[in-house]
Amino acid sequence: MMNPKTQNKVAIGTLYGIAGLVVLILMALLGYILVSGLPQLSWHFLTAPAKAFLKGGGVGIQLYNSFYLLILAMLISFPIALGAAIYLYEYAKDNWVTTTIRTAIEILSSLPSVVVGLFGFLFFVVKLNLGFSILSGAFALTFFNLPLLTRSIEDSLRTIDTTQREGGLALGLSRWETVTRVILPAAVPSILTGVILSAGRVFGEAAALIYTAGQSAPALDFTDWNPFNISSPLNPMRPAETLAVHIWKINSEGIMPDAKAISSGSSAVLVLAILLFNFAARYLGKRLYKRLTSA
Amino acid sequence: MSKEILTTQDLHLYYGEKEALKGINLNFEAKGITALIGPSGCGKSTYLRTLNRMNDLIPNVTITGTIKFKGQNLYAPSADTVQIRKEIGMVFQQPNPFPFSIYDNVIYGLRIAGEKNKEKLDAVVEKSLRQAAVWDEVKDHLHESALALSGGQQQRVCIARVLAVSPEIILLDEPTSALDPVSSSQIETTLLNLRHDYTIITVTHNLQQASRIADRTAFFMNGELVEVDQTKNIFMNPAEKQTEDYISGRFG
Ligand SMILES: Nc1ncnc2c1ncn2[C@@H]1O[C@H](COP(=O)(O)OP(=O)(O)O)[C@@H](O)[C@H]1O
Ligand SMILES: [Mg+2]
Questions:
Q1: B229 phi and psi, to 5 degrees?
Q2: Does residue B60's CB lie within 6 angstroms of at least one atom of ligand 1?
Q3: What is the residue range of B114's domain?
Q4: What would you report as the CA-atom Rg of chain B, rounded to the nearest whole angstrom?
Q5: Residues whose CB falls within 8 Å of the CB of residue A219, separated by 6 or more in sequence, listed in order
Q6: Mind listing the UniProt keywords for this protein, alphabetically (chain B) (predicted)?
């Protein structure tokens, strides 16, 4: 029979062990990706277009596509998520309608992204005839992102104390003024953190994009900013392979001689970008909170 | 015409099935301080929050009876809660400044109401903070966060914030119970300065405080108003046995 004190020690030891193991696995993974990928990185690699058969290709277009798609997806999903979260948390009464909405969000957020991708393919690409395009991809990403972002914004609103709402209302502000002028400004730092973190997830998403934004990256003319031209980087109707999709594709059917190196390099870029998103989220969130609360 | 600014008649309030106010009749004349006292859970906060319709926020609340502010029924279907709360302001137990600068906190109500004139806003900030007796302490850092202030200063900034929208009535729910004794007595001084210009209704669990600052005192118990009178009568010569027991610390 162990006495409670030793029991406690053993339990804590075990938990530390498990936590340590998780950290170790994570470090090993990150280390492997970075060690094998970083040597591939160069300005040329980051900016040059990919080559299908020859060595020496880069990921410039894929990298650009990833960012463009991310921004479009965020522009579509953020206003919807914000509205939904405000409605659900600040206005909706607890009844079967809101319970249904919440359950739907719950289910949507646990949907495998490949299912979202197939739905996007059938609906946006085929049914709405958008083809393999940035727009189809952005809509698919919106579906993927919306539930997560809505929940994260709702959580941000929840962190603002009810005494703040009462304070606003007691000053003779309307419900809407209280939400937009007191609650939202107070929640901005944490909302921003949530947005950036979800940007990281969207940035690394491949399965939802393979059948929507497509698997080809036509050459872009970075001097042509007319969105109606097919080679314009802004054209939303062109197919656009992203970095994550590129990695998947090289590994499944890449035939260029330096496929392995390009895949490692791309993975390193992806991981670095996502790490960057995470650190930026923390840093900006804190900075902004300080700024907003100390005028 | 009577001088009564706020009247409550046969006010009942139910949280679901539970009756928390059991027919309150209580009127307030303009100006001066009324203290609401009574054991914890007797319905003081509930009553106070009916006076500016803050209970509207709680689901499943049923209210019957009449509350009139200057002759207007506060619960009439046409009543405008936003307007009501501009005229009947409220200060809470926990200081709740917004996470903005002191200056922004004070002018928030006005600015949202559309006031843009910088000189006017500056003047209101100074006047309100002076009235709340916190001007000297904060005048040199008006543009720093209100969250950096001490609890007592925060509470006075919250009072200033209410004053800035020029209400006629100020409701306070145990405004000093989260504060240290020094801050509490500063708040008391503030309220005493305001009693000539505003109708102040404050809940307090602190009997000494009621006796120090209140012109009138109302004693609540179990959702009923037991007795209301001049403060000195309540403390020296209460009409009801229950009041006497409570005042002399025999329960509660
Ligand atoms: N939101 C609520 N829902 C249900 N019951 C409540 C709620 N708020 C207060 N009550 C109940 O109403 C009674 C009066 O509470 P309250 O007005 O807060 O008392 P006091 O402020 O005098 O301590 C108490 O029994 C309390 O439990
Ligand atoms: Mg109370």
A1: -165, 180
A2: no
A3: 4-240
A4: 18
A5: A49, A61, A231
A6: ATP-binding, Nucleotide-binding, Phosphate transport, Transport
| Ligand 1 contacts CB of residue B42 (under 6 A) | yes
Closest ligand to Cα B56: 1
Closest CA to B95 of B28, B31, B9, B186: B186
Residues of chain B with C-beta less than 8 angstroms from the C-beta of A166: 54, 57, 90, 92, 96
Query: What confidence score (pLDDT) does residue B252 get?
Result: 52
Distance A182 CA to ligand 1 centre (A): 27
Q: Which atom, in ligand 1's list, is nearest to the CA of B38?
A: 22
CATH 3.40.50.150 fits A45-293, yes or no: no
Question: Are the beta carbons of A292 and B89 separated by less than 8 Å?
Answer: no
Sheet strand arrangement including B199-203: B88-91, B169-173, B199-203, B32-37, B216-221, B224-230
Would the pLDDT of B1 be above 60?
Answer: no
Residue with tokens 């029979």: A1
Distance (angstroms) between ligand 2 centre and the Cα of B9 equals: 21
pLDDT of residue A294: 60
Percent of chain A with pLDDT strictly greater than 70: 98
Q: Measured in angstroms, how far is the CA atom of residue B46 from the centroid of ligand 2?
A: 7
Q: How many residues does chain B have?
A: 252
E strand or H helix at A281, and its extent? helix A259-293
Q: Residue B217: is its pLDDT beyond 90?
A: yes
Global confidence as pTM: 0.86
Determine contact, residues A281/A193, Cβ cutoff 8 Å. yes
Q: Among the ranges A60-64, B88-92, B247-251, which has the highest mean pLDDT value? A: B88-92
pLDDT band at B251; cut points 50, 70, 90 = low
Nearest one of A28, A144, A152 to A76, comparing CA atoms? A144
Residues B190-215: pLDDT tens digits? 999 999 999 999 999 899 999 999 99
Q: Give the CATH number of the domain where residue B184 resides.
A: 3.40.50.300
